[in-house]
Amino acid sequence: MRTVEEFTGEPVFDYLASRPLIEIEKIGDSDPEPLPAWGTHPLSGIRALGMGHVIAGAGIGRSLASLGADVLNVWRVMEWEQDPLLATANVGVRSTRLPVREPAGREQLYELLRGADIFYANRRPGLLTELGVDADQATRVRPGLIHVTASAFGEGGPWGARVGFDQVAGTVTGMVAAEGSLAEPQLPPTSIINDYLVAWLGATGAMAALARRAVEGGSYRVHVSLTRAAMWATTLGYFDWDYVRRTVGTGGDHELVDPQLFTSLTPLGIYQGVTENVTLSRTPHHYMNVLSPRGADQPAWLPRPRRPDVSAMLKILRG
């Protein structure tokens, strides 16, 4: 537990402060790959392979799926996930199970990787290397890959080997003490501090790297961390508590707004969830697959959208 001021005295603060909020690094050369020319949404035709879980990593997949990407998350055979998290952070994401520590499962994973544009994960330090899909390993298998990871404290620096989750990052950076006090720390009303923020930042970095790859080619490493995101959030400032108590719920612009919801029929039943934070007027968010049982999909990519052959269709219609 630290205050914001105490955290600024930690060596990890200096390390993370020297890093950009979204790290994007070109780590290899390959030919340019133009974005798909046909589709109904911004990421139509883009394939994202994931090993995301909980919220921060899974949310990267959700964000990409909402923009039209074919997103497939790989779970290890005996891996477990909490149902409420699966039903929120994994919306729009297809999922499959693979024995990735076995040679046959590893080769299936690599075959999926060869057909992917993006790989994303939020796993403990060292696990991706053990599974053969860290940034260097994965881009050797698939030159031109966008490799996106989310961590607790950054991939390097004094705390790079530590594990952690959302509230840990909020606690060490002083956000929890600011919400309450050192004596009586408090989580914000949302409970989650920056998991989804990191997911949105990771997806944004992936799209920025896709845009670069389309022009100059290359493989890219994208990284975001919970603690770096929390540091950025604290720079936005805090509302005075007296002002908050006087103002919230008083009407007009200060009234709490109910979330926008959507409803869909899924293999798991009727699903109701929140919409995305940003509304796109010309290409509204759309999930090809809203929600399905974990591991229900085959380890295979969907066909990429193609421009209809109008002349061929007319020939068929005319007999």
TrEMBL record:
Q: Name one GO molecular function term.
A: catalytic activity
Q: Domain of life, per the record?
A: Bacteria
Q: Name one Pfam family in it.
A: CoA_transf_3
Where does this protein have coiled-coil stretches? Answer: none
Q: Which InterPro entries match?
A: CoA-transferase_III, CoA-Trfase_fam_III, CoA-Trfase_III_dom_1_sf
Protein name per the record: CoA transferase
Q: Identify the taxonomic lineage of the organism of origin.
A: Bacteria, Bacillati, Actinomycetota, Actinomycetes, Kitasatosporales
